Automatic annotation (TrEMBL), chain A:
SUPFAM superfamilies reported for this sequence: P-loop containing nucleoside triphosphate hydrolases (SSF52540)
Bilayer topology annotation: Peripheral membrane protein
Limits of the ABC transporter domain: 10-262, 298-534
InterPro entries (UniProt xref): AAA+_ATPase, ABC_Ni/Peptide_Import, ABC_transporter-like_ATP-bd, ABC_transporter-like_CS, Oligopep_ABC_C, P-loop_NTPase
Official protein name in the record: Dipeptide ABC transporter ATP-binding protein
UniProtKB/TrEMBL annotation, chain B:
Protein family per UniProt: Belongs to the binding-protein-dependent transport system permease family.
Native source species: Paracoccus aestuariivivens
Gene Ontology CC: plasma membrane
Main localisation: membrane
PANTHER family, alphabetized: DIPEPTIDE TRANSPORT SYSTEM PERMEASE PROTEIN DPPB-RELATED (PTHR43163:SF6)
Residue stretches making up the ABC transmembrane type-1 domain: 95-324
Record keywords: Cell membrane, Membrane, Transmembrane, Transmembrane helix, Transport
Organism ancestry: Bacteria, Pseudomonadati, Pseudomonadota, Alphaproteobacteria, Rhodobacterales
Membrane topology label: Multi-pass membrane protein
Matches recorded under SUPFAM superfamilies: MetI-like (SSF161098)
Protein name (database record): ABC transporter permease subunit
Record's subcellular location: Cell membrane
Family matches, as InterPro entries: BPD_transp_1_N (IPR045621), MetI-like (IPR000515), MetI-like_sf (IPR035906)
Length: 584, 334
């Protein structure tokens, strides 16, 4: 074995699926060295996930075959083996022991009926002759290594008792428990909050430096690449189109597609100027929310007594003006979506008013509520789940009109379809015939058919590829101007928020802790929580990497005993229109 | 957990009252007359009237029902017209036989159905899978009484391997302790009696369990296949685990909630199936007792038995709910 022999060398790999052997990866060559992090980048469907799964030979069960090429693994412990030629029994000795893998969604990747400890012990005992006691000791040590608090207690907990970030730490602990030579990470932070993502990326980087393993990191996010990779390989249509050191790829992308990816990536803190704000404070607000409070009862285990309340939304007040975009930012569980659902009366509220066009949305009932909903519509995060697969686009778009007893006019539907940038013949097609971006356009058209004054968009682009994200955001901005819409934009993605928001509300544990003009909040965040959110955003160029101080902000759910008196919010002005909540 | 069980049992009381009311009402409309079944046709109208009065049959229906409820609270379900014995005593004497049969049938279904289903799920489209699906469809679609008669002809009539009916050989001389023959034989260390009882139990249990076996096989196959598509199975494979370990420890454990649910629901079907199987095999359980009760218009016996069936069904499903919490840690009782 020479020094230059790579740890993993994929040579001229072809992968095909199904009985008819549809090729999905063509003539792919790639190498991974010891102690480096190689990012494999590409949009969904580019074949990156299939490629790394073929290294583990995990595609076999899904009907995939390596039809040509070699996958050479060369470690200090063993001479080169071609993984493509091994049988299942031999592969099992590689999986978990020499090459380990972590997956995108830590919520579903752990077995819900086995304890964390059982899953860790199983991983180590599969490959090493440990007895129960020493396997447990090893597992607890691993949990400590991935910086889980209270590892002994975690050992006996079930996955559902842990947060998403903690579950991904468990996945990492499980992957590294047999000290593999290679870690494959398949979009490991995509399903996580940006703050948790920063922690997990730092952890992977740190463990990689400690162990000297090679990391093959799959992502679609150029920010994550800038944050973590040593080298980058860009994939498209099952082929590598560009490969090189991370700095060179960012500074001088050789392939047109790489340039496109880099341009499409929303770059935080790089926007030329703040978005042009057409909204004027002189115009009366279209939606005026005051002291909105939504609490969910928490009941005791046995007698079901109402013992406490989860203050999902607590004393929230803000105005929304025509042609204005107000962004609500915060981590999952902070109450963003509960606020949106409260405004639409999809969940019951406890207190407060939300005046839209002279009517208080929160006190209306029956017919009046239905009429008021014409003025406030919503689009959801997942355009795949938000459309009824059995309804044609015509039916989807005309349903709101029918419910309101309005005439369905053919010209109106066609004009709307054209307005949101869908092909002319869309009306008689069904949702499955459209791509993710097109489906989100359908959702937008559906929301606009009643000509609302306010549009609530709950993470409208986070399920979409970056290039598509940019198109949808542009569409929303145009519609806002042309249709006099006011947008309430919920997002965890700071780069997206920076691009679209005129004003920002920062939500933390059910309350708004900071609010102000987007530029001001993003450039001079005042609340520690806002600072933490912004600092966690991945850099947009590898040269900007920095060590993040671990700012710890408590994120426990806001549960208070029944009858707890919550002080009304008091605000401290720290800039023009920029206000910070005074902590009691 | 105890509180949950108590609350559920308390909730069962109104269910039982409603069931009793429905059965009582239906019997008011049923053709035929208990009295004409009890005494010969030549009896005078005066005699008939006397009997009516003695049994309380000429009270208004509501009074009859309320009297029944009042007595039932004290554990008195009335006296059987036909057997001239307290209903409770009759039922308790026969209940162990039916429970023994139902449990044995469930055991047959679980022991055959689950492995078949899991193995079929592991290799979809294989010969094993097609065999399993043919087998389970046959089990679901063949009527109990027909399989019963077929098996009696083969095992008892043709090969003389197993008895054709009854619950135990004559003159076994086993002392009744629990009423469950297998248990009694074991408790008294009588292996000969145990074998005798087991031979009698084998055919009826197999026949009664056929339907449930088919259903459990199908459902296990579907649930395990679904579980095999989950992300955590990919994680398990990435850890280097072997196929069998992934199948049983990871996929099957997650599929078990659905399987257990269907066992609970199918137990109801099993009880009604037992009426037919008990009749075919001359099994002295409450199923055959109910059929006799219905044909002789033995109202107190019918109501008593229907209530026992309802209570068993409620108890079994309570047990299933408690079982969920052992299988899936995410399910918490509340």
């Amino acid at each position: 074995m020479t020094m230059h022999e790579p740890l993993l060398s994929i040579q001229n790999l072809d992968i095909a699926f199904g009985a008819d052997r549809t090729a999905v990866v063509h003539d792919l060559s790639l190498r991974l060295d010891r102690g480096e992090i190689l990012a494999l980048v590409g949009e969904s469907g580019s074949g990156k996930s299939v490629t790394v799964k073929s290294v583990m030979r995990l595609i076999d069960q899904q009907g995939g075959h390596v039809t040509a090429g070699r996958i050479l693994l060369t470690t200090a412990r063993q001479p080169s083996v071609d993984l493509a030629l091994l049988d299942e029994r031999q592969m099992r000795r590689i999986r978990g022991a020499r090459i380990a893998m972590i997956f995108q969604d830590p919520m579903t990747s752990l077995n819900p009926v086995l304890t964390v400890g059982a899953q860790l012990v199983e991983a180590v005992r599969q490959h090493q002759p440990f007895d129960d006691g020493s396997a447990k000791a090893r597992a607890v040590a691993m949990l400590e290594k991935v910086r889980m608090t209270d590892p002994l207690r975690r050992f006996d907990q079930y996955p559902h008792e842990l947060s998403g970030g903690m579950r991904q730490r468990v996945m990492i602990a499980m992957a590294l428990i047999c000290e593999p030579d290679i870690l494959i990470a398949d979009e490991p932070t995509t399903a996580l909050d940006v703050t948790v993502q920063a922690e997990i990326l730092a952890l992977i980087r740190n463990l990689q430096q400690q162990t000297g393993m090679g990391v093959l990191f799959i992502t679609h996010d150029m920010g994550v690449v800038a944050e973590i990779a040593d080298r980058v390989a860009v994939m498209r249509y099952g082929r590598i189109v560009e490969e090189g050191p991370v700095g060179r790829v960012f500074d001088a992308p050789a392939h047109e597609y790489t340039r496109k990816l880099l341009d499409a990536a929303p770059k935080f803190r790089h926007a030329a100027t703040a978005t042009l704000n057409d909204a004027s404070a002189a115009v009366p607000p279209v939606l005026s929310v005051s002291h909105l409070t939504t609490r969910f009862p928490v009941r005791s285990r046995i007698l079901r007594r109402h013992v406490a309340n989860l203050h999902a939304v607590e004393d929230v007040s803000f105005d929304l003006h025509p042609r204005e975009t107000v962004a609500i930012i915060g981590e999952s569980g902070c109450g963003k979506s509960s606020l949106a659902k409260s405004l639409l009366r999809l969940i019951p509220t406890d207190e407060g008013r939300a005046v839209l066009a002279g009517r208080d949305l929160l006190s209306l009932g029956g017919q009046a509520l239905r009429a008021a909903r014409d003025d406030i519509q919503m689009i959801f995060q997942d355009p795949y789940a938000a459309l009824d697969p059995r309804m044609s686009i015509r039916q989807i778009l005309s349903e709101p009109l029918r419910i309101r007893g309005l005439a369905v006019e053919e010209e109106g539907l066609s004009a709307l379809v054209e307005r949101v940038g869908l092909p002319e013949d869309s009306l008689d097609r069904y949702p499955h015939q459209f791509s993710g971006g097109q489906r989100q356009r359908i959702c937008i058209a559906r929301a606009l058919i009643l000509r609302p004054k306010v549009l609530i968009a709950d993470e409208p682009v986070s399920a979409l590829d970056v290039a598509i994200q940019a198109q949808i955001l542009t569409l929303l901005e145009e519609l806002k101007r042309d249709e006099d819409l006011a947008l309430l934009f919920i997002s965890h993605d700071m780069a997206v928020v920076e691009r679209v928001a005129d004003r920002i509300l920062v939500m933390y544990r059910g309350t708004i802790v900071e609010q102000g003009p987007a530029l001001s909040v993003l450039s001079c965040p005042a609340h520690p929580y806002t600072r933490r959110l912004l600092e966690a955003v991945p850099v947009s160029h590898p040269a900007e990497r920095f060590e993040r101080a671990s700012l710890s902000v408590p994120t426990a759910a806001p549960i208070y005993p029944v009858g707890t008196n919550i002080e009304p919010a008091r605000w401290q002005t720290i800039g023009p229109e920029h206000r910070l909540r005074v902590e009691v | 957990m105890l509180l949950f069980a108590i609350r559920r049992l308390a909730g069962a009381v109104p269910v039982l009252v409603v069931v009793a009311a429905v059965v009582f009402t239906l019997m008011q409309f049923a053709p035929g007359d208990a009295v004409s079944m009890l005494i010969s046709d030549e009896a005078s109208d005066a005699d008939k009237a006397r009997i009516r009065e003695a049994w309380g049959l000429d009270d208004p229906p509501l009074t009859q029902f309320l009297n029944f409820l009042g007595n039932a609270v004290t554990g008195d379900f009335g006296t059987s017209f036909k057997y001239k014995m307290p209903v409770m005593e009759l039922v308790l004497e026969r209940l162990p036989a039916t429970i023994e049969l139902a449990l044995a049938a469930t055991l047959v279904a679980v022991v055959i159905g689950i492995p078949l289903g899991v193995l079929a799920a592991a290799r979809p489209g294989s010969f094993w899978d097609s065999f399993t699906s043919t087998f389970s469809f046959a089990g679901i679609s063949m009527p109990n009484f027909w399989i019963g008669i077929l098996l009696i002809l083969l095992f008892a009539g043709h090969w003389h391997l197993l008895p054709s009916g009854g619950r135990a050989p004559w003159g076994m001389g086993l002392e009744t302790m629990t009423g469950f023959l297998l248990l009694d034989a074991l408790l008294q260390g009588r292996m000969d009696a145990f074998w005798g009882a087991l031979k009698h139990l084998a055919l009826p249990a197999l026949v009664l369990g056929t339907n449930m076996t088919g259903i459990i096989t199908q459902l296990t196959r579907a649930s395990v296949q679904e579980a095999l598509r989950e992300d955590y199975v990919m994680t398990a494979r990435a850890k280097g685990l072997g196929g069998m370990r992934i199948l049983w420890r990871h996929a099957f454990r997650n599929a078990l909630v659905g399987v257990v649910t269907i066992i609970g629901l199918e137990f109801g079907a099993l009880l009604s199936g037992a009426m037919i199987v008990e009749t075919v095999f001359a099994w002295p359980g409450i199923g055959s007792l109910l059929i006799q009760g219905i044909s002789s218009r033995d109202y107190p016996l019918i109501i008593g038995l229907v209530l026992i069936y309802t209570a068993i069904f409620i108890l079994v499903n309570l047990l299933i709910d408690l079982l969920y919490t052992l299988i899936d840690p995410r399910i918490r009782i509340n």
